[in-house]
Every structure is written in structure tokens, then in C-alpha cells.
């Protein structure tokens, strides 16, 4: 079997195993939580969100243990970019995403702050274990804050959390533990297969691990978020579609990147210069792009959803183009992006934010975020 075909099969097989393992992990974890009488709200804010981010976590940990730090970091960064541009964009194409939940709108500024902090941590060329501890501590504090906020304002937040099936605990704790352990085992195997395939593919294609992690691996590990948000949009639960994206992005930075930095121990989690200069700023900009809409209780329209998807396509082209026979066009492509595409996007975002702000300002029931 040709080496490249083998690497491709490994990547696809790894993604499939991660998807199946993540589903079993969620089922087992939720069942145990229900059996032990943990409130549905807490399960939705912790267990379910952790389950959808389990593929990213296991892939990053496997990458660190195998010495592929760049793949670990690019997986987390690329997943955030994919979540905002593709998951939100595709969900908005299905149904315009109306922002109602205060819980969602409060999480967006936090996501921007954490994204900026991670960029600052990584600017030295590595994310130290101390930074990893800080990110994990921030995750604990944020989880407690989320639960307290949701309980204080249930009307504004319960719609943003996934429903827990009433019979989730059926089968007893034995079956729940079996599912949980099986999920962890499959996630571990799937992550190792995916990392091995991605590393081999990068070597055979002559591209960096960062490019593979930012595109193929991040898209593969973000499939649970994409499916969850699309189903939520089809059912009209737009806050769940948005909350899933924002919550997953926060976990990618605090849990996945923080856990990876802690696993790297004393040597620190190395960050490549291209990630620091290009992709981390783009990750931050994608979070900033959503802020005006979320704060004004606006709506992510189908037009904006299509715009987000188009931007992701351009982002992928920008990563792949320099490694192809058309590499001589990469500088011209970036110039067009900088001088034409970026200004147009900013004008659209600002115009839409002003429109929604003016429309909601005069409403008597309008409550500032």
C-alpha cells in the first residue's frame, strides 16, 4: 500500500474513532451524572461540553507525548477558527442565529480575553506548564461562574444548554462505566492513529505539521461541534448552536491547550513562529468579529453565515497556496486579502452592528447586555 494512501486511511480512521469514542464518552458520563443525581444544568455546562471537546483533548495530549507540539497547538487554534467560521456559518445558513441568552453574550468577552492571553503566552515561543496551570484554573473558575450565573438567571440561559434525556441513566451504573471506559479507550486509540497519520501526511506532502493541524486535524476533531450545532439550528434552538461553539472554543484554549502545556511539563509546549504571527491573530480576530452582533442582541444572518464560510475557504487557501506550484501567487493573494477582503468584512460587521443597535434601542423591553 502506498505510504500516502496509508496516511490518508489513518487520518480518516482516526477521525471516525474519535467521533465514536466521543459519543460513548458523553453517553457514559451523562448516565453516571444522572445516576448520582447531578442537576441537568450542571451536566449540560460541564459533562456534555467536555465530551464534545474530548477529541481535541486526546489528540493534543497524544501529540505532546509523541513530541509533535506544533500539531497539538495548531489543533486547538485551528478548531477555534473552524468553530467560528464553519460551525457558526453553516448553522446560520440553516437558520439565522438569534442571540437571546445572556449566558452566551457574557462568554464571548471571556473568549476574547482568553484568546488574547493565549496569544501573549505563546508569543515567547512556548506555553509553559505554569501557563497551563493558569488556563486550567481559569477553566475551574469559569465553570463555577457559569453554573452560578445560569442558576441566577435560568430564563436567559436554559435555552443555551443541551437537553439531557430523561432515560440517560437507564442500564445502571455498570453500563455507564462500560461506556465511559470504552469511550476513553477508543478516544486514545483514535487520537494516536490520527496523529500518526497526520504526521506522515505532513512529511509526504512536504508541509508543516501546523498546516495539517490547522486544516485536516482541526476540522476532523470539530465534527461533533458541527453536527451538534447543525441539529440545534434545524430544531430552532439557535442559542444552543451558538453556545456550543463559544463553549467549545473556551474549552479548546483552557482545557486542551492548558492540558497539553501541563503534559509537556518542564520543556513547555513549543509554538511555531507561523502560528504566533499568522494563526493566533486570526483566531483572535474571528472571536472579535462576533462581538458586535452578540452584544447588540443581533442575529447572525444567512448572508453573514455565508461570509464566514467564504472566509474559511480563503483561510485554507492562504495556508495551502504557499506549498503548491502556485506559491509565487501567495504574496499577491495575501495583499488582496489585506487590502480588499478584510476592509469589506469590517464594513459589513460594523454596519450590521449599528443596524441592530438602532433597531433595538427604541424597544421598551430592550435590556442592555
From TrEMBL:
Residues 11-144, 176-317 form the Sodium/calcium exchanger membrane region domain. The chain crosses the membrane at residues 12-35, 42-65, 77-97, 176-195, 241-265, 303-321, 333-357. Pfam families: Na_Ca_ex (PF01699). It comes from the Bacteria. One of its GO terms (biological process) is intracellular calcium ion homeostasis. It is a multi-pass membrane protein. InterPro entries: K/Na/Ca-exchanger, NaCa_Exmemb, NCX_ion-bd_dom_sf. One of its GO terms (cellular component) is plasma membrane. This is CaCA family, sodium/calcium exchanger. It comes from Parasynechococcus marenigrum (strain WH8102).
Amino acid at each position: 500500500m502506498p505510504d500516502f494512501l496509508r496516511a490518508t486511511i489513518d487520518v480518516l480512521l482516526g477521525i471516525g474513532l474519535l467521533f465514536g469514542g466521543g459519543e460513548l464518552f458523553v453517553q457514559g458520563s451523562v448516565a453516571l451524572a444522572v445516576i448520582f443525581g447531578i442537576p441537568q444544568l450542571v451536566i449540560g455546562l460541564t459533562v456534555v461540553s467536555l465530551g464534545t471537546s474530548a477529541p481535541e483533548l486526546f489528540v493534543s495530549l497524544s501529540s505532546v507525548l509523541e513530541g509533535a507540539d506544533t500539531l497539538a497547538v495548531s489543533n486547538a487554534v485551528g478548531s477555534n477558527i473552524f468553530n467560528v467560521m464553519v460551525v457558526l456559518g453553516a448553522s446560520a445558513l440553516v437558520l439565522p442565529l438569534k442571540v437571546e441568552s445572556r449566558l452566551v453574550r457574557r462568554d464571548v468577552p471571556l473568549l476574547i480575553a482568553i484568546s488574547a492571553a493565549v496569544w501573549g503566552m505563546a508569543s515567547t515561543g512556548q506555553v509553559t506548564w505554569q501557563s497551563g496551570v493558569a488556563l486550567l484554573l481559569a477553566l475551574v473558575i469559569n465553570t463555577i461562574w457559569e453554573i452560578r450565573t445560569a442558576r441566577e438567571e435560568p430564563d436567559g440561559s436554559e435555552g443555551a444548554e443541551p437537553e439531557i434525556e430523561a432515560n440517560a441513566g437507564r442500564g445502571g451504573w455498570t453500563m455507564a462505566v462500560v461506556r465511559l471506559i470504552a469511550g476513553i479507550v477508543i478516544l486514545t486509540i483514535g487520537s494516536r492513529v490520527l496523529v500518526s497519520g497526520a504526521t506522515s501526511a505532513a512529511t509526504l506532502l512536504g508541509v508543516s505539521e501546523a498546516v495539517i493541524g490547522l486544516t485536516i486535524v482541526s476540522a476532523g476533531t470539530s465534527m461533533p461541534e458541527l453536527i451538534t450545532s447543525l441539529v440545534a439550528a434545524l430544531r430552532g434552538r439557535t442559542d444552543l448552536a451558538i453556545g456550543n461553539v463559544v463553549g467549545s472554543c473556551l474549552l479548546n484554549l483552557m482545557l486542551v491547550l492548558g492540558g497539553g502545556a501541563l503534559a509537556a511539563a518542564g520543556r513547555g509546549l513549543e509554538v511555531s513562529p507561523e502560528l504566533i504571527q499568522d494563526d493566533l491573530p486570526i483566531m483572535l480576530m474571528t472571536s472579535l468579529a462576533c462581538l458586535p452582533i452578540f452584544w447588540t442582541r443581533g442575529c447572525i444572518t444567512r448572508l453573514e453565515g455565508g461570509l464566514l464560510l467564504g472566509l474559511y475557504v480563503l483561510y485554507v487557501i492562504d495556508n495551502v497556496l504557499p506549498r503548491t506550484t502556485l506559491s509565487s501567487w501567495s504574496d499577491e493573494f495575501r495583499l488582496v486579502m489585506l487590502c480588499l477582503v478584510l476592509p469589506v468584512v469590517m464594513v459589513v460587521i460594523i454596519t450590521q452592528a449599528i443596524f441592530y443597535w438602532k433597531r433595538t434601542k427604541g424597544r421598551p423591553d430592550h435590556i442592555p447586555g
